[in-house]
Design goal:
This protein is mostly helical.
């Protein structure tokens, strides 16, 4: 059981390290999103995917260790939580303290990651709304009212107000 607890503590510590890296990457993303630097955003997102892959591997290992611990304790792995495991380690204060510390640290880091990701999501949604607004303005410019110019047959020959042509000029 002692080696299983050591394994669990080690896996959780490694998860903390990876979540800390993910937090750093997510924090780097905030000014990049605000600046609209798509190339840098893509690069950071790729780095985040690598960190998430590492976290998923560690999470799989954590589940394996928790399953082994649950089997030794004759508990259901689906209901065995770290908090309960910490309470069960009353007779092993050193392991109890280590497990409680790493659990609290992991909880704190993951909460910070959620907060930063939520802020980044709001920034991205704001950017998308701005792009949509600009697209609407461009579309409405094509349907601007005509000037009141008439030709010899009393038909309107007016041009559109505020537009030079109905095409997008990529050279500008």
């Amino acid at each position: 059981m002692a080696s299983l607890m050591e394994d669990l503590i080690e896996v959780l510590n490694q998860e903390c390290i990876e979540y800390d890296e993910l937090l750093g990457l997510s924090s780097k993303k905030t000014p990049v999103i605000a600046a609209g630097d798509l190339e840098k955003l893509s690069q950071i997102t790729d780095e985040e995917q690598i960190a998430v892959g590492k976290i998923q591997k560690l999470e799989k290992r954590r589940i394996e260790v928790m399953t082994d611990i649950a089997n030794v304790l004759n508990k259901d792995v689906k209901t065995l939580k770290l908090t309960e495991l910490v309470r069960m380690l009353d007779k092993r204060p050193s392991e109890q303290r280590q497990l409680a510390q790493v659990r609290d640290k992991l909880k704190s880091i993951s909460q910070h990651v959620r907060i930063v990701n939520s802020q980044n999501q709001e920034l991205l949604e704001g950017s998308l709304e701005m792009v949509q607004f600009e697209m609407n303005i461009l579309q409405q410019a094509g349907s601007a009212p005509e000037t009141a110019n008439y030709n010899k047959t009393a038909g309107t020959a007016g041009s559109l107000i505020g537009t030079n042509s109905g095409r997008f000029d990529a050279r500008q």
